[in-house]
Design brief:
Elements lengths: L1 H5 L3 H11 L15 E6 L1 H11 L2 H4 L5 E12 L5 E12 L9 E7 L16 H9 L6 E5 L17 H22 L3 E10 L1 H16 L5 E8 L5 H5 L8 H16 L6 H4 L45 H8 L2 H9 L4 H9 L9 E6 L12 H9 L6 E5 L1 H8 L12 H30 L1
Parallel strand pairs: 4-5, 4-6, 6-7, 7-8, 8-9
Antiparallel strand pairs: 1-2, 2-3, 3-5
């Protein structure tokens, strides 16, 4: 610990003074501790892995080695209070063409996470590896936030799908990466591209909107690629059929917004049935649970498996929702435009803004978790209503079906294992690489 204190950089020392000082407001993005290089993935290692997994056909051959750097930085909490978030910076290096020239910075927001200790600052994290293969190994620098409430963050909970705090976490990760750059050998061009997948698509678009509105003189955003994100949250509440994964996405959202706004329900029992009402408010994110151990059967406790052993893509979504939630709570959110959950969703919708830089929406029309018909299509129509010419959209479903569909078609019989496997893996496994490839194609035009 003494060695760490002695090793504080000028930035880290300034951050420490801000943390202790009276009334300072310029803490955002300062490093709480020095950036640490955790290791380097060589281009050969990346190529071996992408070859064996089949990813290389999408990612391309790695040109650069990639340094993996741990960041811990100051950022505000929901109410503007000083707290911190951690994350990872990926730095291209090596002798390949374009690996040491000034690099554009891809600021990335991750998908929904239920595991509180998880950090993207890891040489073994699969999402970090995907970012390394798709972007950093091709000459981009990358910074990706763990968000509030995860890993090293001292914030007491994760404000799930809360647009303003998602945006500030992403924006301050950009500042943190800039503050760390010289100490980890990063050469940044000043151009910034935003990307995010699933929850991260919501977070990256919220950051895109906030930067162009409030920080355009500081952060030069040249493009944003927002991938399979839930942009139309209020519209999603009106849909009567539950999404795949409802048993963790919706409780996560409801309990997080209760902590943010304080009025989503009058008592936890008014929203959730027993036994969930007894422990659901503090379940997510969890130090111990994973997607395979989250419960929703009414006979279970938090440590048990899904009902009948089913995994997220195999469970019947409406049954899961109806087992967890009070019927009146769900019905009112679907039908009452003065409902507190609906009004909170309206606050966190991303409709109604006009990007100045290039913007890409990407998703797969077969996605059962974040259906494009509810989110991507509505978002694109909203942009089109203002005659924007800098917005494009991509549907990767044909690619997903060609690579993963049995016989190159999506299975249609929900009683078959093929259906459960295909749709259970669609959003989390099949769709992301194709959308990242579309994002990189956009970034290559403006980097």
């Amino acid at each position: 610990m003494k060695i760490l204190k002695l090793a504080l950089t000028a930035t880290g020392a300034a951050a420490l003074l801000v943390a202790c000082g009276g009334g300072e407001t310029n803490f955002r993005g300062l490093l709480l501790e020095p950036a640490v290089v955790l290791g380097t993935l060589t281009a050969a290692q990346i190529n071996a892995s992408t070859t064996s997994s089949g990813l290389q056909a999408i990612s391309g051959v790695a040109k650069c080695d990639v340094k993996i750097v741990a960041l811990n930085y100051y950022t505000p909490g929901v109410n503007g209070d000083r707290t911190n978030a951690s994350g990872v910076m990926l730095v291209p290096t090596g002798s390949g063409a374009g690996c040491t020239t000034a690099a554009g910075l891809v600021a990335y927001a991750k998908g929904t996470d239920v595991m509180k200790p998880r950090t993207l600052a890891s040489t073994a994290d699969p999402e970090t590896f995907l970012l390394a293969a798709m972007y950093a190994a091709q000459g981009y620098a990358v910074v990706a936030t763990d968000y509030l409430g995860f890993a090293k963050s001292s914030f007491s909970y994760h404000p799930y799908l809360h647009a303003d705090s998602e945006a500030s976490s992403v924006i301050d990760s950009i500042r943190a990466a800039r503050n760390a750059a010289s100490s980890v050998g990063a050469n940044l061009s000043g151009k910034v591209m935003l990307a995010g997948y699933s929850q991260g698509g919501h977070a990256s678009m919220a950051a895109h909107r906030a930067i162009e509105r409030d920080n355009a003189g500081e952060i030069n955003v040249v493009a944003g690629a927002h991938l399979a994100g839930p942009y139309n949250l209020s519209g999603s509440l009106k849909v009567t059929n539950a999404i795949a994964g409802v048993q963790f996405f919706v409780p996560y959202l409801v309990t997080a917004w209760q902590k943010v706004y304080g009025n989503i329900y009058s008592s936890v029992g008014a929203a959730f049935k027993a036994p969930y009402a007894g422990w659901i408010e503090n379940l997510l994110p969890s130090p111990t649970l994973t997607y395979d151990t989250l419960p929703y059967d009414t006979s279970t406790t938090p440590a048990t498996m899904w009902v009948s052993g089913a995994k997220p893509g195999e469970a019947l979504p409406n049954n899961a929702r109806d087992a967890m939630f009070q019927t009146a709570f769900i019905t009112d959110s679907q039908t009452n435009n003065s409902n507190a959950l609906y009004l909170a969703a309206k606050k966190n919708d991303l409709l109604g803004w006009s990007p100045k830089s290039k913007l890409l929406l990407c998703g797969g029309s077969g996605d059962p978790t974040v259906p494009p018909a509810i989110h991507q299509t509505v978002m694109k129509a909203d942009f089109d209503s203002r005659s924007l010419t800098n917005v494009s959209t991509v549907d990767v479903d044909a690619s997903v079906q060609y690579v993963f569909g049995p016989g190159h078609v999506a299975p249609t019989d929900p009683t078959t294992p093929a259906f459960a496997t295909y749709y259970g893996s669609y959003h989390g496994t099949y769709e992301p690489p194709f959308c990242h490839a579309s994002a990189r194609a956009l970034f290559d035009l403006v980097k």
